[in-house]
Specification:
The protein is α+β, with helices and mostly antiparallel strands and 193 residues long. Helix content is 17%, strand content 38%.
Length: 193
Amino acid sequence: MKGIGKGRLSADHSPKYERVERERRYLLRELPPGLKVNDTHAQITDNYITGTRLRLRKARWPQTNEWTLKLTQKHAPAPPDFSRTLITSIYLNEYEYEVFSVFEANEIRKNRYPYEHEGRKYSVDVFLGALHGLVLAETDFDADSEMDNFPPPPFAALDVTHDELFTGGRLVYLTIDELRAEFKARVEKWEGQ
């Protein structure tokens, strides 16, 4: 690695390029009522670049064959609070996407469905590949107070907002069997207390 030369990297980041993303995340047993696997959805492939906070995303809407390509940095400034993350995204053209795709990365594939319940919009993610069987829903908020006081929707099995295990940066290293084993061990630990 070439390095940055003499001096030190500033700890100050320019807030004009990053935004706070506020979201609640829920584990689902199945698709919410009324949602079907053949409904309108985006096919998403996320590649988490090894050793970094960077994610290369390719999203395709099969109905229109339109693509979105972007490079994103997303991190939680105050773990274990994963409900508030700082996110910076750059939209890429095809050539730029290919340039970044040469980096070593771990991949997550999922289908993302838009879903509305009681006037609130959710993204429902049905994971594919090594995480086949995992279904998560998330919803975004404009204000902390709104997010902090939001009750889980009736179709949610569990609120996993503050559980690092269910963040993309952690899921990318797991299979569905490993996820289930880890989750089962946690449940047994909680029940034993």
